[in-house]
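Subject: sequence -> C-alpha cells, single chain

Hey, anyone have a minute? Need the predicted structure for the following. Not urgent.
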Amino acid sequence: MLKKLLFTISFVSAIYCCKAQTAEEVYNKYLDYNLARMQGETEKALDLGADLIPNIDKLKPGARNNFYYSIANLYENNDQSVKAIEYYQKVVAAVPDYYVAQRGLGYQYAKQAEALKASGGAAYIAAVRKALPHLEKAQACDPDDDTLKLIKLYYNNINDKTGLATLNERLKKLSKTCVDLLDDKN
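Reply:
Had a minute. Here:
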C-alpha cells in the first residue's frame, strides 16, 4: 500500500512539474531573460534563453522575433557563430526587411567566408554569395563605409563584375523597404 501511495505521489508530482507552461509563464521568463541581458549577465541570459526555446511558440510573433534577434546577438558576441546564424535566420525569415538582423547574418556569413579565403575555390565563393545579399540589405538601409568596402571587395574577389556594376541599383531598390525596429507587441 505504501508503495502504491509513493508511486501515486511521485506520478502526480512528475505530471505537475512537467506540465506545459502557459503563455503568461513563458512571457514572464522572456522578461527575466531580457532583464538578465540588459544587465549584462550574458551567461544567465543564455541559460534563460535556452530554457525559453522549447516553449517559444507561446510568445506572440513580435516577441518571438525580438527574442530570436537578441539571442542571436548574444551568441554572436559569445563567439558561437553557428547558433547566432540559426537565430538570425529565423528573424530574417520572419521579417526580411529588418536590416539589423540582415547585417548580423551577413557578417556571420562573412566570417565563414574569411575562414575559407585561404583555400579559395568554390567553398569561398559560396560563402561570399551567402553573405552578400544580407550585407547589401544592411548597406541599403543603413549605409556604412566598412560594409560597402567589404561588399565591393567580395565582388572583386569572386570576379563578379556584373554584381559590382549593378550594386548601386540594387542598393537603391533595397533601401525602399527597411525595418529598423522590431515590434514585440503583436
